[in-house]
Design goal:
It holds the Pfam family MVD-like_N. It comes from Enterococcus camelliae. InterPro entries: GHMP_kinase_C_sf, Mev_decarb, Mev_diP_decarb, MVD-like_N, Mvd1_C, Ribosomal_Su5_D2-typ_SF, Ribsml_uS5_D2-typ_fold_subgr. Keywords: ATP-binding, Lipid biosynthesis, Lipid metabolism, Lyase, Nucleotide-binding. This protein is an alpha+beta fold. The protein is built from eight helices and 14 strands. It folds into two domains: 2-170, Ribosomal Protein S5, domain 2 (2-Layer Sandwich), CATH 3.30.230; 173-315, Alpha-Beta Plaits, CATH 3.30.70. The protein has helices spanning 66-83, 106-120, 127-137, 191-201, 205-225, 228-247, 258-272, 296-304, and strands at residues 2-15, 20-22, 27-28, 32-49, 56-59, 62-63, 88-96, 149-153, 162-165, 175-180, 277-281, 287-292, 312-315, 322-323. Strands 1, 4, 5, 6, 7, 8, 9 and 14 form an eight-stranded mixed β-sheet that branches. The chain has a four-stranded antiparallel β-sheet with strand order 11-12-10-13. A two-stranded antiparallel sheet has the order 2-3. Helix 2 (106-120) packs across helix 3. It is globular. The chain binds ligand 2P0.
Amino acid sequence: MLNGKARAYTNIALIKYWGKEDPELILPKNNSLSLTLDGFFTETEVLFSKNFTQDVFYLDGMEQSRNATKKVSTFLDLVRKRANCPFFAVIHSHNHVPTAAGLASSASGLAALAGACNQALALNLSPKELSQLARRGSGSACRSIFGGFVEWERGHSDATSYAVPIDAQGWEKELAMVFVLINDQPKDISSREGMQRTVETSAFYPQWVEEAQTDLQLAKAAIQAHDFQKLGIAMEANGLKMHATTLAATPPFTYWSPDSLRAMTIVRTLRQEGIPCYFTMDAGPNVKILCQKKNVQAIQAALAASFAEKQIIAAYPGPGIQFVETEVTK
Ligand code: 2P0
């Protein structure tokens, strides 16, 4: 029986991945930098067998449509080729996210699938090779192979584009990220589609690529110096620049909602009151607030005046991918 199981945690980019140099290989235009979190993870088990006649994908116990299975099957085709294994697979995936989070993440999902395949087909991939493989499923998944701060080096080929952990000497343990969950509906424009439209049509896109290099250097220097404010300033500025590119796309779009702006205003007010905290957003209206662990309660209290308790969730730095024993491998 060829089966394997892995757990991967989601990551949030402080310096964003936004645009592909090569959509087929998922090579990005710029390096990105993330923090892996403990709050949300995906656990995936995969079973390959010569008896299966197609790939079947269950998410949280529900069999997914052929369309929803396509991304998984395309990834499995790569794995099958690499392992020289012709078998179809059954995949059971569970997203561990707080109720109403709307945070089902392709980063943790594809990283866990890559890990499960590595185990099932005894690929014996190094963490670097696993990161490369996960990248082919979803770009941001390559960063979820590692814990703490992680940089995705864009590279110039399949073999040279992968994530590497950044050693912050444990400083990340002093940090936290408070999520403001604004909408749990599926997004109108997926990140894949949004970044492609931006690359192809946004007047601001070339500037984004340049700015991202500078922001990355500022963020890395701040991590090495354990300088929270410098890191927060670089992160917030980078996120705003990413979202600015969408306004200059054709047709223009934005992931922001009125509630996103309310959350941003609260963050700015908190800063004026002497609590250092900074926001970032991804391809959706949720706002993520980077802060120091010691200020989590004060930030939650300030948000509670405008958002329901279940919309406010604190997460902390988390580990890299974990392989889980299965009934068969035990
Ligand atoms: C990031 N995002 O760095 C950026 C910021 C969204 C906004 O990575 O097409 O799901 O599968 O490579 O990885 C989301 O993009 O896209 C993402 P694909 P992915 O976290």
